[in-house]
Amino acid sequence: MALKITVIGTGYLGATHAAAMAELGFEVLGLDVVPEKIEMLQRGEVPMYEPGLEELLRRHVDGIEGASGRLRFTTSYEEAGAFGDVHFVCVNTPQKHGEYACDMSYVESAFDALAPHLTRPALVVGKSTVPVGSAARLAERLAAASPAGAQVELAWNPEFLREGFAVKDTLHPDRIVVGVAGERGEELLREVYATPIAEGSPFIVMDYPTSELVKTSANSFLATKISFINAMAEVCEAADGDVVKLAEAIGHDERIGKKFLRAGIGFGGGCLPKDLRAFMARAGELGADQALTFLREIDSINMRRRGHMVELTRDAVGGGFLGKRVAVLGATFKPDSDDVRDSPALNVAGQIHLQGGQVTVYDPKGMENARRVFPTLAYADTALDAVRGADVVLHLTEWREFRELDPAALGDVVAERRILDGRNALDPQLWRKAGWTYRALGRPKA
Ligand code: UGA
User: Fold this and answer.
1) Which atom of ligand 1 is nearest to the CA of 272?
2) How far apart are CA 244 and CA 261, in angstroms?
3) Do both 134 and 118 map to the same domain?
4) Span of the secretion signal (predicted)?
């Protein structure tokens, strides 16, 4: 009989994972403790913007016309315990308030709520990003609290999906990493991932701590690559060099590679920044803090980018923000997402606003979330409306819509044809030809 799967926590990770598991042919029950979220999902609506996810969901949610009916949702742990052979825990692990460490309370509550309902053999699979050592601790807690005792196993299976590509990354992962303590965990996960394994996704089996470390080290490496190129951008600016050319040239070396070498206002989002910090905090607890002190520098290079963008803008408008109108294109932490968590774009917009600038923001998908986080900023319904009367235009999230803007049309409505590209994603020639002063981070002035 086909395995029955539950997915606990229906945020980015969980909602995508649940829909993907149904797509792979399994019966799936998604659980969340927020009833409104469950009601939305049950109607086939996704609580966030993620390309392709709503379509995938609607292909499987029970009760939707033409759907496979393999995907249902609940708020009941009792129902989840009775239903599932394999339980994926996908709840989030945000940064603790006022500390670097990650907040494990959602993971712990999920395990504590599920365990008493595990009355038959089951595999619990952690997907949340956790500090190394958590899986071993949670395995003991699970065995002690589950009626089925030793028949309940734990595996750790970190997730590497990127927002904006969540569906593709989940259905066709570039690797599947599993941390296990016994053979049954591995066998069941081979069954769950049979389709991507057959397509060629590497399936890499290891112990718990290594699997936890794979996730945090991968994100740390990505953050390091971005901060490296941003450090080069700082040097380029000082030496009148061009960081875009530099990245292109070093990227041809296959050992370095072209990806994640886009200089700009740096990384943000719900993962990279908090994962770096949690990793440092955990290394400190383990007595290995020296190994990761370089991550502190990665973090500070990154945070410096935001301040630098604010300074460039201040210079561009003559040394002070008072009475100046600043148009901000982009609010999300990256394109193809509505996520504004720790968004560099919104941070820059907020700083300028707090320093007296009149900031108007436009983002293709992130307006609602941005308004919630920063209600005192002004928001416009289109890019054209945002730039109307602006003394300077800032390009802070590299949406395709912004690359396709017509510099001449925008030029007709601004007060000054001045644009600062915080993502090195616009074509300088195009803007300069239309009479704009174009400046970007880490590139020559003209
Ligand atoms: C990141 C990782 O890329 C995923 O592999 C991982 O699964 C995920 O975190 C997670 O831990 O859940 P994500 O947060 O979606 O994914 O965002 P990224 O695509 O990594 O981008 C992060 C930030 O770096 C964005 O703000 C982006 O604008 C910035 N970035 C990216 C740059 O500034 N330069 C680049 O060259 C690339």
Assistant:
1) 9
2) 9
3) yes
4) none
Cα atoms in the 13 Å half-sphere on the side-chain side of 23: 22
Q: Is 432 in the pocket of ligand 1 (CB under 6 A)?
A: no
* H or E element at residue 83: helix 77-83
Question: pLDDT per residue over 62-93, tens digit each?
Answer: 999 999 999 999 999 999 999 999 999 999 99
Which CATH number covers residue 224?
3.40.50.720
Asked whether 222 lines ligand 1 (CB < 6 A), one says yes
Walk along the chain (446 residues) in steps of 10 and give the mean pLDDT of each run: 94 96 98 97 94 97 96 98 98 93 96 98 97 97 95 97 96 98 95 98 98 98 98 97 98 97 97 96 96 98 98 97 97 97 98 98 98 97 98 98 98 98 97 97 89
Q: Are residues 146 and 219 in the same domain?
A: no
Domain holding 123, by residue range, is: 4-206
**CA quadruple 443, 349, 385, 383: dihedral, nearest 10:** 50
Instruction: Tell me, yes or no, whether 184 and 287 share the same domain.
Output: no
Q: Assess whether the C-beta atom of 165 lies below 6 angstroms from ligand 1.
A: no
Same domain assignment for residues 151 and 257: no
Residue-wise pLDDT tens digits, 344-376? 999 999 999 999 999 999 999 999 999 999 999
Is 243 found in the same domain as 95? no
Instruction: Please identify, among 180, 206, 232, the residue that sits at the C-terminal boundary of a domain.
Output: 206
- Considering the domain architecture, whether residues 234 and 180 belong to the same structural domain is answered as no
By three-state DSSP, how is residue 238 classified? helix
Phi-psi region of 46 (alpha: psi -120 to 50; beta: other; left: phi over 0): beta
- Report yes or no on whether pTM surpasses 0.90: yes
